[in-house]
Specification:
This protein has 232 residues and is mainly beta. The chain has a domain of 86 residues: Elongation Factor Tu (Ef-tu), domain 3. The protein has four helices and 15 strands. The chain has a seven-stranded antiparallel beta sheet. The chain has a six-stranded mixed beta sheet with strand order 10-9-8-11-12-15, with helices on both faces. A two-stranded antiparallel sheet has the order 13-14. Helix 2 runs parallel beside helix 3. The structure holds FE2/S2 (inorganic) cluster. FE2/S2 (inorganic) cluster binds next to loops.
Amino acid sequence: MPVQAIAAQCVRLELLGHGRVRAWLRSSVRPQPGQCMLARLGTGAEPYLRSVLFPVAFDHELWAIELAPGEAGRDWLQPGSSLELLGPVGRPAALPAAKGNILLIANTQPARLLPFAAATLAAGGAALLLLARPYPVESLDARIEVRIGHLPALVREHSAWPALAIAHVEPQPAPELAALLAQIPNAHVLLHLCLPCGVGACQACTIRTRAGWKLACTAGLLWPLAELQAQP
Ligand code: FES
């Protein structure tokens, strides 16, 4: 589906704890796991850049984003707020058959990985979420196991566990973590990028892959780690 302008409305807010809020949106087009929408969350020209909105949950015709304290739109978005979305940006996730366990690794935005946990749980698998910082874990599906601590140590402890691993680390996995992830078969990275245009025009989302330089907004935001080269 081509990137397009889409009107959306915030239907309800859920307070999750730790100042985080989940905003449920209604729009005619929804992003799929692995895709995002772009939107300016606020009035006027601020913030200048659109926010990157990954889906964190789906419910019939609604889908949800999650905002942390200090994020653009956290205090602006209210039930009834209208948004102008641009998207969907990226490609729907093409993952190996979701059989077995999934290991999810995140620092600042763990909720963006939740659709992958939901798919694995729905297929009868198990999900383990490794977090670098405290998070309102009581808001998560109780079937998701959670460990919080130093990510390299946690990954080292659980690297033999998954059939599939997905890391979403801002700005990108540090060398120690990247080296540990590289030892996991089927390790993927959900890229954490600024996406100013979302349509391949600004070149701000250039990534280095084994097949050459790509634009993440058009080539995709979820990559097998083995296909990515160290970003300069
Ligand atoms: S966000 Fe502009 S080229 Fe990708």
